Automatic annotation (TrEMBL):
<dbReference type="InterPro" id="IPR017911">
    <property type="entry name" value="MacB-like_ATP-bd"/>
</dbReference>
<protein>
    <submittedName>
        <fullName>ABC transporter ATP-binding protein</fullName>
    </submittedName>
</protein>
<dbReference type="GO" id="GO:0005524">
    <property type="term" value="F:ATP binding"/>
</dbReference>
<dbReference type="InterPro" id="IPR017871">
    <property type="entry name" value="ABC_transporter-like_CS"/>
</dbReference>
<keyword id="KW-0813">Transport</keyword>
<dbReference type="InterPro" id="IPR027417">
    <property type="entry name" value="P-loop_NTPase"/>
</dbReference>
<dbReference type="InterPro" id="IPR003593">
    <property type="entry name" value="AAA+_ATPase"/>
</dbReference>
<feature type="domain" description="ABC transporter">
    <location>
        <begin position="2"/>
        <end position="221"/>
    </location>
</feature>
<dbReference type="Pfam" id="PF00005">
    <property type="entry name" value="ABC_tran"/>
</dbReference>
<dbReference type="InterPro" id="IPR003439">
    <property type="entry name" value="ABC_transporter-like_ATP-bd"/>
</dbReference>
<dbReference type="InterPro" id="IPR015854">
    <property type="entry name" value="ABC_transpr_LolD-like"/>
</dbReference>
<keyword id="KW-0547">Nucleotide-binding</keyword>
<keyword id="KW-0067">ATP-binding</keyword>
Amino acid sequence: MLEARGLGKSFGQTRALNGVSLEISEGEIVAITGPSGAGKSTLLHCLAGVVRPESGEVVLDGRRIDTLPEAELTKLRRESFGVVFQFGELVPELTAVENVALPLLFNRHGRQEAMTVAAEWLARLEVSDCANQRIGELSGGQRQRVAVARALVTGPRVVFADEPTGALDTLGGEQVMSALLGAARTSHTAVVLVTHDNRVAAYADREIALRDGAMLAGVDR
Ligand code: ADP
Ligand code: ADP
C-alpha cells in the first residue's frame, strides 16, 4: 500500500538516509526504531510527504507521491495521512473539539458535520470532558489523545506518529498507545511510529531497525 524504494537524504555532510526500501500493508502497525541520529524522523517525514528524498521513490497505492507538486502533495496528505508529531500540530487558540474538526474542514466538510464527527472521536478517545477546553488547559495525556483523535478523524490510510508517548509517564503512554492502535485497527488504518522505547515497539506487528540511515533487519513480531 505504502512503499519506499531506495530512499536517500543528506543534510550537508550528514547522510541521514542511505538507501532505505520497505513496504507497509493496509492496516499494518510498524515501529521504526534505532538510536538518536539513525534517521528515524527523516524516514517518517519522507514517507509522510513532509520531506522530499533526494533519491528513491515513495509510492502510495501505486502512485508515486514524492515528486508531486506541493499543492497536490498537500491535498494528498490531508486526504490520506494523519500525523501525531511531537510538537505543534494542535492549535492552542482553538478548543479540543475544534482542533479535531479542523482536518475535516480542510477536506471541505460542513462545519456542523465536522463538529459532530470530531465530538464522536473525542468520545472514542475518552476525552469528551475536554471538548470545549483550549489546548493550553489540557494535561499532556489529554493533549496526546486529542492529537490521536485529530490524526484519525478523516479515516486516513496511514497515521504517522513520532514518539507518540515521548512526553508521558509509562501508564499514560500505554493508554495512549492502546487508544491509538485500537482505533487504527478498527478502521484498518496503518500506523507507522518512531520510537526508541522497546515497550512501545512491542505493540507493533513489525519492527524496522535503523542504524546510520540504513535498515538493519525487519523483525516480525
Ligand atoms: P529525534 O531524535 O526525536 O528525531 P531530534 O531532536 O534529533 O529528535 O530532531 C528533531 C527534528 O529537528 C528532526 O526531525 C529534524 O528535522 C530536525 N533536526 C535534527 N537534527 C538537526 C540538525 N542538526 N540541524 C537542523 N535540524 C535538525
Ligand atoms: P533520528 O530521528 O533517528 O534521531 P533524524 O532523522 O532526526 O534521526 O536525523 C538523522 C541525521 O540527520 C542526524 O545526524 C541529524 O542531526 C540529521 N538531520 C536531521 N534533520 C536535519 C536537518 N533538518 N538539518 C540538518 N541535519 C539534520
